[in-house]
Amino acid sequence: MKQALVIIDMQEIFFNYLQNYLFNNEQLVTNINELIKQAHEKNIQVIFIQHTSQNEQDELFEGKADWKLHKNLFVSPTDKIIQKSKWDSFYQTELLDYLRTNEIEQLIFAGAQTEFCLDTTIRAAFSLGYQKNILFKETHSTINGVILDASDIINHHQSVWNNRFLTVIDGKIKL
Question: What is the pTM of this model?
Answer without folding.
Answer: 0.97
